[in-house]
Amino acid sequence: MVVLLFTRSFRNSISPPVIAASDLCEEFFGIQTRFRVPRSRHVLFFLDCLFSLIIPGSSIVCVVRGFWYIFDHVFFFSVHAESYFLSLGLGIFLSFVALLLQHSAAAGSRKLEDGRHWFLKICFEDLFLFLACIAGINLWRGVWGLCNVYVFPSDPVLSSWTCHTVGMGGLMLLFHGSSALVKGYQIDGEFTGGKGCYLPSSSFTMFKHHMGVRTTLVWNHVQTWQKTWANRIKHFDSGAVYKVQQPCVQRV
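Now predict its structure.
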């Protein structure tokens, strides 16, 4: 965690469900690095990619592993399922708290930014993201452990393939396969106007943004269908008489 804070990389430690990445993004293959070196500078770009993968990437794994094993000792029960259920419940609760507090946290970040307290702004955003990080790790631990307990526990190979197929298949059907990847790099404090406290987890908003044209066409079709049936019901309620003939219905 010290390495992440020192390199201003802590915000990259948060994970689903408090964040969600859409496969419909126009910059799907655009992956940012720590120092934003352009690709035209081949050697420096390679070193930038190497640093982004090794230093912050390894530190994030250490943070997740450390908290995971801490929770193993803190939430220790004779029945493992109880520990995993507790972790899952805590993760869901903290995720809702983080999502509910993001607007208030963004307001606090803007206030610190307006006062030119840049260091305090970064510390405040990292503190809020710490809550989201703990929520994500607890959810992962809870789901992971419950899958070990209930999904074909006597056959680890079948259990692994089942979890992978259902999980990845569901993500692909929902156009959220990118959420399973560690893709891109964000810097602590780089967002202005309080945007650093907003968690990109609004899946329906993403669908509306990326599929706006198709969504609008479908919604217009639904509205037309509703109006058509409303008019038909209105005619029937008004006492109009219909005589059925083949192959159509004529009004008399």
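The longest helix spans residues 80-114.
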